[in-house]
Specification:
By secondary structure, this protein is mainly alpha-helical. It has helices at 2-15, 17-44, 78-87; strands at 62-65, 71-74. It has a two-stranded antiparallel ribbon with strand order 1-2.
């Protein structure tokens, strides 16, 4: 009986090649999309699992718009870190990060410093 089902399925596949191709390609793209989304989300959620009390750690983000219209991402603006420390009761510690647009260069020894 199972052999009969496979024979009927094979006949339908060979008769309707365009529909078979569309269905197989759609299934393949769907599986690839699911695998890609799974890998990206598992990578993103894998950070900071080693902290003690990790369920109590929060991250505040913001962005700054420069005078020329560029937007820059900040982890936490410096001004906000101090006000957050005072305004939220029970907050034990806070940290701020601000990039002043400076570049860090490490000399490789082949060029003399000026």
């Amino acid at each position: 009986m199972l052999k009969n089902y496979f024979i009927i399925a094979w006949r339908n596949i060979t008769r309707h090649k365009a529909f078979t191709t569309i269905n197989v390609l759609g299934l393949a793209f769907g599986i690839c999309a699911c695998i890609t989304i799974f890998l990206i989300t598992s990578y993103e959620f894998s950070f900071d699992k080693f902290h003690a009390d990790k369920e109590r750690i929060y991250r505040i983000v913001g962005d700054v718009e420069r005078s020329n219209g560029e937007k820059e991402f900040l982890n936490c603006p410096v001004i906000d870190a101090a006000s957050i420390q005072q305004s939220i009761p029970g907050l034990e510690a806070s940290a701020a990060y601000h990039d002043f647009g400076e570049k860090i260069s490490i000399p490789d020894g082949s060029v003399e410093p000026s």
